[in-house]
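Risk register update: the risk of archive-format incompatibility is retired. Evidence:
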Amino acid sequence: MDLRRLRTFITVAEQGTVSSAALHLHISQPSLSRQIGELQQELRLKLFDRVGRRLVLTAEGEQLLVDCRRLLDYANAISERVHVLRGGDTGVLKVAASPLQFESVFSTFLHRYTQRYPNVRMKLIQAVGLDTLAMLERGEIHFGIRLLQTVKIDDSHFGLSPMPPIELLGACHPSLKLERGGTIDVVRLASHPLLLPDSSFPVRRAFDAVCSLARLKPNILIESRAPHTLLAFAEAGHGVAVIPSGLRTHRYALRTVRITYKGKPLREPLAVVWDKRRVLPRYANDFSELLAAHMRKLYPSLTGRAP
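Archived output:
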């Protein structure tokens, strides 16, 4: 069975049209249609029904799609194992992370990793939520950087390497009267005008959960999907922005403090995740350790941030 035809079949099933699949695979539409026809003839099965301009899987095609994906995963794993056995630290390391992690961590981490593995090119892909796990299962990335509380992870399939956690911080103009020191309890914070990320951000959901637990009704001034908008409003003295610890604030004149509840910092666990069923190249083995060390260097402690 030709693996190329199976890849074409999977791509058509995912893209839904011959034109989109051909563009995705960088082949001509006649060539793609020919491969699908040859596969159907070889299997003696009809795999697609045409509905308007789209190709929809038949019942047989839907069942075969799962098996084809599994077969290609095995084939990719064999190819990667061969590469590992041959040795050499040359290739591409594919990592999925959120836009915040790109800005706060990977903008400086890339140099460190390149110094260790000069012949490896790191490819960064923006992904959040369930998209990361789906990409790992499809073999599209080697690692995903995830907040662990955003989705349940199947330990039998995925390996986890803990990273320094994300902490919830309050950022405000230095003239705003908050408690002295580097922390503020969420109970006292709730009375100030708050500048919050919207509910699509894990930090916001974590903050709301603590407020609910403490039976607080926070004084919300604005909500935004743009974290730097919150920082700009905070710098202008409009209130306290609730932000994740990785967000860069050095361009703003702000005082930054930890948010606590009953004396404990509010934190969200972070981890590097990978598919344990997949053989990783040798140059990927040090990735988690190097990334964790870099993050500890970037954020050794939030103590002393507040004046």
